[in-house]
Amino acid sequence: MLPETARAPSGRNKPQAWTFPAEPEATQMQTIIWDHPVRLGVAGERSINGPQDALQYLNEMPQGGWFFERARNRCREALERGEALGLSRKAFIGAAIESSFPMLDDDIQA
């Protein structure tokens, strides 16, 4: 069954393809950052500034366990709703600890 928005081809003898309305344009995600970045590496070589950076980093790291999944879900929620930024940061720190990535001590306390 065709969607209601589909239109039949015009012309009786001309075979034409069905046309559908254009897809809505993808909305641009605004950049959301945490109050304090999470600095990874022995000397803080890599700075994770918000949930978008965290998701990118999580995609680069090997699949983890519970904290990895929690961090991924929390960061997605923060980007979609703009809420619970602190929870997404804490979840990301948990995933980094779970994966034994070195972090600066002051990031663990915050």
Task: Decide which structural class fits the backbone.
Answer: mainly alpha
**What is the residue-mean pLDDT, rounded to a whole number?**
78
Rg is 22 Å
Unreliable runs: 20-27
Share in helix: 40-55%
Q: Helix count, per DSSP?
A: 4
Strand and helix order: EEHHHH
Number of strands: 2
Which descriptor suits the 3D outline?
globular
Determine the strand fraction and express it as a percent band.
Answer: 5-15%
Q: In whole angstroms, how far apart are the ends?
A: 55 Å
Give the strand line-up of the largest sheet.
1-2
Largest sheet: 2 strands, antiparallel
Written account of the structure:
The chain is mainly α. It has a domain at 48-109. Helices cover 41% and strands 5% of the residues. The protein contains four helices and two strands; from the N terminus they run E-E-H-H-H-H. The protein has helices spanning 51-60, 66-81, 85-98, 105-109, and strands at residues 38-40, 46-48. Strands 1-2 form a two-stranded antiparallel sheet. Helix 1 (51-60) packs antiparallel against helix 2 and helix 2 packs antiparallel against helix 3.
